[in-house]
Amino acid sequence: MTVESAAAVLTPLPEIRVDRLFRCAGQKKHLTQRKIFITLNRAKRAYHLKQALSVKATYSTADLAKLFDVNESTVKRWSDTGDLECVKTRGGHRRFSVGSVLRFVHQHKFSAPLLSAEGIKNENLRVHVIAGNIHKLAPDLKEEILAGNVNGALNIVRTAFAAKPSFLEVCSTVVFPPLCEIGDEWHAKTISIDQEHVATNTVKEALTLFQSEIHHKGPNGLKALCACSEGDLHDIAIRCVGYYLETEGWHVTFLGQSTPSKSVANAIRTHKPDLVALSATIVENERQFLHRMNNDIHPAASRMRARLAVGGHTIRARFGNRLKADHLCDSIAEFESIANPHNYKHRKNGQNTARQSA
Questions:
Q1: Nearest alpha-carbon partner for 134 in 167, 105, 101
Q2: 176-187 and 138-146 are packed helices; what angle lies between their axes, rounded to 10 degrees?
Q3: pTM above 0.85, yes or no
Q4: pLDDT in tens, 223-243
């Protein structure tokens, strides 16, 4: 098949850059059938995905009444009480941004399946999302992050959240699976390191934008320290934990990737957190890891009467009682109970005494 004949197949699809196919060919006048097949399918998938996940910039009162299955007067009442933020046009009509709608859904624990599926044209995907099967969005998110499309990734996360308004569940069900697949593909050398970096940074940008859109509770007076253990460069999971804690009213200090254990211990003494959350996604030397955790970090957290939570894949089975910590977390979802402020009320007096003496 020639490049020209392949390009002719693409012309019915608007917004597809046909010149990309020519760049793929380089100086060659012909492409292999396999190369043409892969290129065409990627182009078509990108186009249909963009159409499937187009989200409105703003919604009218009538739009939201239909999507929430309520009367327009109910939407206006939500707006008048300040629960649902809006702006008014010159004609006095209310307009609701995507961010304000997501904050409302999150704050009031609404499940809005019709809102989540509102922009989805693919009927099969639409049915799954309405039913709450948000894991079906993971393959589409993988496509977007590999392409470096922050807005596309953000829209998919928004869609998942509208169907299941739980930040931790969206992360564990929609965000993490494609990242794990991309990591496996990089190890298998089927994708390059630059592709893996593009995907990782796209996810980080999309999650940062999304976190700023959803509802944040007022300050609860609790502080958390989040970091990756020494040698661990995978910080997306611990970032998600930090973002979640911030939406719950915590003050979060994030130390970043591969933080030396003595630096973590020093930060505990400096910031005096109520919770220390550490990511141990990659542990290459178990003996060294246990020594650092049990001799540097755990004693520092204990002196400040701070809870220590260590997360990572199969960390319970791998370390069990050998690792000194209050919580060993195989899943990010466990932080929903760990972050509950009621778990820390009885510790306040003891913490204040320890901090004053420190």
A1: 167
A2: 60
A3: no
A4: 999 999 998 888 999 999 999
